[in-house]
Fold this protein.
Amino acid sequence: MTKILKISFASLWMLFALVAQGQEHSHAGATAIEYPNIPGYLSLKTDFHIHSVFSDGTVWPSIRVQEALRENLDAISLTEHLEYQPHKSDIPHPDRNRAHEIALKEAADHGLLIIRGSEITRALPVGHNNAIFIHDANPILQEAAEDAFKEAKKQGAFVFWNHPAWYVQQPNGTPALSDFQKERIKNDELHGIEVINTGDYSEEALQIALDNGLTIMGTSDVHDLIDWDYTEKAQHRPITLVFAKEKTAASLLEALKNGRTVAVFNDLLVGKSEFLNPLIKASVTATDLKYIGKTQVLSVTLHNHSSSDLLFENQMPFSLYRHSPVFTIPAGESITLQIKTLERKDSIVLTLKALGAFTAPKVQPIIEWELKID
């Protein structure tokens, strides 16, 4: 009997271990980030500015992969500083691709794209720039900044300007487009700019992007744990939504070079109208359209399918009943509006200004949904 019990307990321990291992391996988490696809494209959730202990971060590269999987990201890049390695006395690895290789191994069989990248780190006017979709980080470590950019271009990289409004480098918090950046843009060596970095949204960076045909980017620039920097503050990391034809590295690169992005940080969405507007439109669906009793007050339930709280202002010729003209649809939730249409209609155009979204500095898009009433 004792022997049988021992076998049973051993079997149970094995079962518990397998279940625990399966749960850990799933990387399931409560902070998954969701955004709908838009017509013709997948909405891929990416973070292309991340650090580990192989530069000035505080975590191992595999942790970065596990965090991204918990948050349901589609692609990340570990962009370690090439010129700045504060942990090199403890981690003196000569290969600047090492963080990428560790992350790549951790992400195997999980569907997360690991894009090889590095950060070119210099004083102004060069500033900090990420080169992603590279083949080898080591040759990009050049004495002259111009040579580093040339090497990145030679490797077919997508290069973007990091935190151009960072007050450590720009005390007035306002980015300045120098002759260095102008020359890089002219030479097809600079393709994007961070409009959102950590918690900072730069209107000036957005204007630079629009004026110079640069891709709009949003990144976490995380150095510590995502949980510490964002989740415990009831935030999700800043990301770039990339509108790609398929979930592949090649398709991501094509979309980035053609500027098909929206930068997102919680309830802030920034991008060109041709991509931002369909994203917001796809994020909200309407159901249960019906008039209340014999009145001319239309009830409609609006569902938010995104991870952003969506703040709207009514732009219809009809006012709302029992609702402020400014209202929020919380992330992943629904609200019911009551619209005074004055007469019973077969259809209406729901017209709302997205107050948390920007297609240019201080310019908020107006989104329309054509709704048929049963």
The radius of gyration is 24 Å.
